[in-house]
Target: dihydrouracil dehydrogenase (NAD(+))
Amino acid sequence: LAVNLQEIRECRKEYPDHVIIGSMMAPIEERVWKDLAQQIAESGVHGIELNLGCPHGMCERGMGSAIGQVPEMVEQVTRWVKDSVDIPVFTKLTPNITNILWSAEAAYKGGADAVSLINTVNSIISVDIDNMIPEPVVDGKGTHGGYCGSAVKPIALNMIAEIARTPETKNLEISGIGGITTWKDAVEFMALGSNAVQVCTAAMIYGFRVVDDLIDGMSQWMDDKGYTSVEQFT
Ligand SMILES: Cc1cc2nc3c(=O)[nH]c(=O)nc-3n(C[C@H](O)[C@H](O)[C@H](O)COP(=O)(O)O)c2cc1C
Model:
């Protein structure tokens, strides 16, 4: 934590014009969420995202998607953090739930300024049938994990559209995530209600330069269509 907070302070100094959103995850204990949120806020972030969706070994420890799958906990955790900081709070949702509106509405009731979605989709990608181990195999072992990248884009688009068009949740800002690789993907996410987008897998595969391509491509498309602001097509 000390290293992370120091790095945030350094990034703030180095890139004063950039927005930094801190991401946090903790077990379901009020003091822990509040203390951590305050420390992150004091490091100078512009907003805090609550990771309630990680399925990578965290749910087994009562964190991540274990919290995100219970709407009452989503509401509670969001309220704890909202009560302890005065910067925008993004509640990040898990797609591993029957109805995304349950958790989006819970985040809204807890006071979230925005929801971020989707986190990864629980999956086992394949099985090594010679050794009978789920893949990828590391040191002779494998397990389930979170699916992401282009394959999850249709799931994300649908969940975002549901939140954006439902009266109880439509006032939430949406940070859209899930398979965004090209500027066209980003425009599609915004067309269905995202106010901003995030990229994870594409940056891991192609490097951070994909962000410049997203910006260039979207700017060109906006000029071609005569849009002067993103609000005009969100
Ligand atoms: C290796 C890996 C690590 C991740 N770690 C986190 C994390 O620490 N916190 C979080 O909120 N999401 C985490 N995610 C989820 C991503 O932020 C994102 O929600 C998801 O991968 C879907 O977007 P994408 O298709 O652009 O990757 C991780 C995803 C991957 C693949």
